[in-house]
Amino acid sequence: MNKQNILQLVCSITLILALFALPGSAASEVKASDSELMPRLFSLAESELGELEAENTLIITDLGSSEGSYIYQDAFYKEFFERKLSSTKNLLKVQNSKNSPFWFAFFNKASGNCSFIEINLGAKPELSAPVTRNIAFEKLYSNQTAWTEEVNQKVFKGREFAIVTLANGWVEGLDYELIRCLETHNHFCPGVSSGYVLAKWMEENYPLSEGEQYLVFSCPTWCKEDVFVRLWDATPGKRGLWASELRAEEIEALGGAPAGIFVVWNGKEGKGKAVALNFDFDKVRESCGSKAEDAGWASKYLMDVWLLDDKNWKGLVSEAAVLEIDEATLAELKLADSNPYVTLGLLNPPEKSKPLENANPSEKASTGFFAWLNQLKEN
Predict the structure, then answer these.
(1) What are φ and ψ of residue 114, in 5° steps?
(2) S-S: 254 plus which of 97, 116, 258, 345, CB 3.0-4.6 Å?
């Protein structure tokens, strides 16, 4: 073997060793993973709930979000698909921060029982003891005090609202596009439901033509923004969404129910249409069947269920104004010190005041989304 061949062999061996040493490589993943962890997880859930049948099973998890959990995805899906479960029908993978705990909730629709299991990803991964409760909404609603006590005790480690709303919403039937939004938002609430209604209203009344896109000036903000990010890829990083708040008196001046300004923009032509929308939360609250004495979690879920039926959407969204805009107006809308309603001439500039005097609209607004939210906080 000549010197050139020896050099090539040494380089090849060095490259192979370097690849195996890389963080996150297949070799390091296999070494870090407990190969029996996912089989033990599924067995533990089945010991609580019985066989995980496709007709009755929903698994909710933050697998892939929690730091280090991604290496268990292949093992999870192996167990998952062996049970003939469907990733589009039996699974909700919710988004969480990387420093969130790693957890699973196994739900059985037929019984209403749900088993919550956390995984401690220490030196030796460990499964927590399962916590199993019946979370069928009808049962919880009939004894709200009992479940509220469980919530206060954080029986599911603070994820009670997310698990109850997602599981029961799944029983009612969730559109796949809505499921994608709920995975991003990681729970089911009227805020994200209203965002879904707003998005569908825009798509129906202002469908995009070739070369157009939706730009969102979400002012005021609530949970709805995650819908536009997920359905339209309208992310702040791609200059698709700008979020800002309104003062309480500005909300009142705009009729009490502003939901943001949605722009249908044609970048090639340098022009677009700005559509200022309102959303009638009062109608939702009055129509959903919620009672004044209901717990906040119960009221929110009843609103969600009512909003699932698109026959109820009529009249919820209304146009406050529709304006043609050019590049100069769009540029001004984007500025940090610009109130988009003032820029479009829909609101008078605010009088000079201390910035923090009216900074939190949720504490002062008497109508619309924030008034509803305040009422829930009082229950």
Answers:
(1) -135, 130
(2) 258
Give the pLDDT score at 349. Answer: 81
**How many angstroms separate the Cα of 113 from the Cα of each of 49, 62, 140?**
7, 20, 12
CATH code of the domain containing 279? 3.30.1330
Nearest in space to 122 (alpha carbons), one of 67, 73, 64: 67
The string of DSSP letters for 210-238 reads TTEEEEEEE-S-STTHHHHHHHH---GGG
CA-to-CA distance for 351 and 187, rounded, in angstroms?
38
Q: Please name the amino acid found at residue 44.
A: L
Question: Quick one: which H or E segment has residue 93?
Answer: strand 91-93
pLDDT attached to residue 351: 66
- Torsion angle in degrees (nearest 10) through CA of 316, 94, 145, 298: 10
Examine the domain organization and report whether 142 and 109 are in the same domain. yes
Is 207 in the same domain as 84? no
pTM comes to 0.83
For the chain, list residues with pLDDT below 50. 10-11, 15-33, 352-359, 362-364, 377-379
Considering the domain boundaries, does residue 20 fall inside one?
A: no
pLDDT confidence of residue 122: 79
